[in-house]
Write a structure and sequence with these properties.
Layout lengths: L6 H6 L7 H4 L3 H12 L5 H8 L19 H7 L3 H17 L8 H10 L6 H16 L8 H8 L4
The chain binds zinc ion.
Zinc ion binds next to helix 5.
């Protein structure tokens, strides 16, 4: 089932030339997308593994739904208000570059964008990846609506 798949297992099938490495000019954004693609990140699904937390208890730290904090949940399904806003903005902008995206489900849109094969949208996905990872670094009380103001002060968004 898709929600139990790790993004890397999907990405792996598409290994080879990585156009996004050339099309995302912003180094930190490029690195963030690479981290997500390789599961080399601090989202709960990976962080919990390092902490020895059983997989079914590696909950998302951005919403109260007790969903597993996997890449797919956080990037395409999480109900955190900031994530919803960033996701809507990113996907809306991506669709203006590639209208074919409207034909995909929200989860498939994110998977497609994570593949980084589309040079017109990879910069958008790079920034979204970076912001998502940064949001996880904030103290828990800053991950809600206050996060936008806080991150703005730090020039992260
Ligand atoms: Zn969530």
């Amino acid at each position: 089932m898709l929600v139990h798949m790790n993004i890397y297992s999907l990405i792996k099938k598409n290994a080879g030339f990585e156009p996004y490495l050339e099309t995302i000019a912003h180094k930190q954004h490029r690195q963030a997308l690479t981290r997500l693609r390789l599961s080399a990140h601090i989202l709960p699904i990976e962080k919990g593994r390092h902490l020895g937390i059983p997989r079914e208890k590696r909950y998302c730290i951005l919403c109260n739904t007790q969903e597993i904090g996997s890449e797919i949940h956080i990037l395409s399904q999480c109900k955190n208000s900031i994530m919803q806003r960033w996701r809507n903005e990113m996907v809306t902008a991506a669709i203006t570059h590639n209208h074919e995206l409207v034909k995909l489900s929200p989860a498939d849109q994110i998977i497609y964008l994570t593949l980084g094969h589309d040079s017109s949208t990879s910069a958008l996905m790079g920034k979204y990846s970076y912001d998502t990872l940064e949001l996880h670094e904030l103290p828990w009380h800053m991950r809600g609506r206050g996060a936008v103001a806080y991150l703005s002060i730090l020039n992260w968004i």
